[in-house]
Design goal:
The chain is an alpha/beta fold and about 200 residues long. The protein contains eight helices and five strands; from the N terminus they run H-E-E-H-E-H-H-E-E-H-H-H-H.
């Protein structure tokens, strides 16, 4: 069955909304680096085929669609919350905060929010959380691509600062190789100290 990725947006437009933002995050699971959210407002006529959940795309296809979305979107906002804040408020709250920041960075501001997941965010704007939204809404799918590529590029930049950890390859996720390097060197400044895979390998 082919999902109509415009169905949520179409329903909101029929109710009088015109600037509908899809919101998604990347980076809840890694042991290192920030959590990154993107908010994307797409035009009604979008000449970019192939947009879908970022997890279903190859890195090359994601990068291509990232450029196309930036070229055609009405507005894109990015929200980044670093590992220190993740440790302070926990990863769920950090992810929701990054979503709020991404919405605040939209110009023009949206009049409705479609949010990936089951949680609402701290905003006075009308909003709808959608479980598996990145597979059901074109705007959330676009946001998932922007968030994923943005975070991957940040981790590639961190690789230059901390090459021994291999961030360019695993992007901070808890691979066997990553955990072995943490065991050998201990955590670096961008590791999430509150995460089990990092705490376990920290020296007392």
């Amino acid at each position: 069955m082919v999902t109509n990725l415009w169905s949520f947006e179409t329903k909101k437009i029929a109710k009088g909304f015109s600037k509908i933002a899809g919101i998604d995050e990347a980076g809840r699971g890694p042991l290192a680096g920030p959590v990154v959210s993107a908010a994307v407002i797409l035009p009604a006529a979008l000449p970019v085929p192939g947009i879908c959940d970022s997890k279903k795309l190859t890195p090359k296809k994601r990068s291509y669609l990232y450029e196309m979305i930036y070229e055609h979107a009405v507005s894109i906002g990015i929200g980044i919350v670093d590992s220190t804040e993740i440790d302070r408020i926990n990863i769920l709250q950090a992810a929701l905060l990054s979503m709020v920041i991404s919405v605040e960075n939209l110009k023009p501001q949206p009049d409705y929010l479609l949010i990936d997941g089951k949680f609402r965010i701290s905003s006075n704007l009308p909003q709808e959380p959608i479980v598996m939204g990145d597979s059901l809404s074109i705007s959330i799918a676009a946001a998932s691509i922007i968030a994923k590529v943005t975070r991957d590029r940040l981790m590639e930049r961190y690789h230059i600062d901390y090459p021994e950890f291999g961030f360019a390859k695993h992007k901070g996720y808890p691979t066997k190789a990553h955990k072995e390097v943490i065991r050998e060197f201990g955590p670096c400044p961008i590791h999430r100290r509150s995460f089990k895979g990092v705490i376990f390998h920290m020296s007392p």
